[in-house]
Amino acid sequence: MSYSLCSDILESKNKVQTQSIGIQCDLDPDHFYYEARCSTPIQKPQKVEEQKREEEGGGEEDGGFDEPTKQKEVDKQKTTKIATVDLHWFKQDCNQIIVTELAIIDQFNNYIVFHFKSPFAKTELSAKLYNDVTWLERYYKKMTSLKNKYPELSVTLAIGGWNEGSASYSAMAANPTKRKLFVESVVIMLSKHGFDGLDLDWEYPAKRGGSPEDKANFVSLIKDLRAEMDKKGWILTAAIGAGKDTIERAYDLPQISTYLDYIHLMTYDYHGSWDQKVGANAPLSTAEPNDELTVEYSINYLLSNGVAPEKLVMGIPAYGRTFILKNPESKEAKLGDSTQETGFGGPYTKEKGFMGYNEICAELAKDSTWQEWWDNTTKTQFARNGEKVISFDNEISIGEKVKFAMRNKLAGMMVWSVDTDDFRGECHQQEPFTILRVIEKSMATSLQEIEKHKKPNAAVQSISVSLALLFCMLHVLLYCNH
Predict the structure, then answer these.
(1) What residues form DSSP beta bridges with 413?
(2) What fold does the segment set 9-48+75-474 form as a domain?
(3) Are 384 and 370 in contact (CB under 8 A)?
(4) Active-site residue list
(5) What is the spatial distance between Cα 140 and Cα 146, in angstroms, rounded to a whole number?
(6) What is the pLDDT of residue 6?
(7) How far apart (Å, rounded) are the C-alpha atoms in residues 311 and 353?
(8) Which of 36, 79, 152, 257 has its CA 20 to 30 A from that of 248?
(9) What's the CA gap between 220 and 60, in Å, rounded?
(10) What Gene Ontology terms describe what this protein does at the molecular function level (predicted)?
(11) What DSSP string runs through 213-239?
(12) Are the CB atoms for 206 and 249 separated by under 8 Å?
């Protein structure tokens, strides 16, 4: 299985073009780069009605279908994959832009999510999906036309994101008329451009300009969308926050689990320079019994409160959080050390407090004065050079998270994001995409362990679990700042 699928960028005065798929975009004054998520979904999702029939006894105990249908589903899982890539806009050196060739979906494809920042028209009727994006239409066609080459591929459109905020969504979801108009415009947009579903990235209901009623209204919005998605056979997913406070305020977990095909849990950014102390970006676990800011806690909380494991996708960050120590004279840095309010940035992403995995491993490789240490409690790697500290996931921590996800029979993992993986294979002088490869290898190892311990009379049931977690999903989103 080859991952060496990055393409070079051809620069001209005002635009760049990928050699592989010919996507063009005006870059004055902004530039773009691709990002992605990676996960392991079980199979193409069933409609809610089909799931209800099975739960009500519409078939065999092991899954609700007869033997011939069961075998077809098992065969189907062998070829079902998911792919995603994000297109973000940043002011940065065009020479360092990363464009991941979409041919990578040949290895990980099931669906692509094309994500743009602002879904709302700048009018008094803010519930109407913003369709005045003619410059994007040719890119929509580029993406959806991939289905001609990859018949099993589904391409879905995602809307929202951190920069979009919550106020517009809150106003729309609270009003049945506006909600209806929004859903109708979503259907028009998806149909017009040949998309196969929607990924909703409202960050977050009841927060950041939202209202307490958003929790119930979010369910109403998803329910309305679900009704239209089912008519078309489309996919409906959502990205949700991982903090307990956000989860409790924003989401009716049993309800959203019922109506969504997959839930993408953003299990990262638990700690950063905003805490003004050294912390783990995405700690798997903790020694503190009441610590709610860990991946384990977030996953277990969702599973204990109505989310089906086969719908839950766990996030893995391909980046680290950075810190600047207040006391750089200390001989050793440790968790909890006081830091300044902002961290330092990487040479390409240039965001204070953030470094991509590719930037981190390149920095550690070129400068031997960095000192690394492993925190076994949080399953996190750290590095320090003078006043600078980095918290990040390495091969070991990612492997631990993959095993955790598989033990809990989750739908899979997502990587945020592939553009900050070691996409050229330069850090360790090996094949590209270190993190994706670690995930793949860890899944294979975990599957072997499952095979060793499975019960002889559970062979049929274990096949679906094993095949479900065998493939990696990339997730394609497009954000554009105007």
Answers:
(1) 314
(2) TIM Barrel (3.20.20)
(3) yes
(4) 203
(5) 10
(6) 22
(7) 32
(8) 36
(9) 32
(10) chitin binding; endochitinase activity
(11) THHHHHHHHHHHHHHHHHHHT-EEEEE
(12) yes
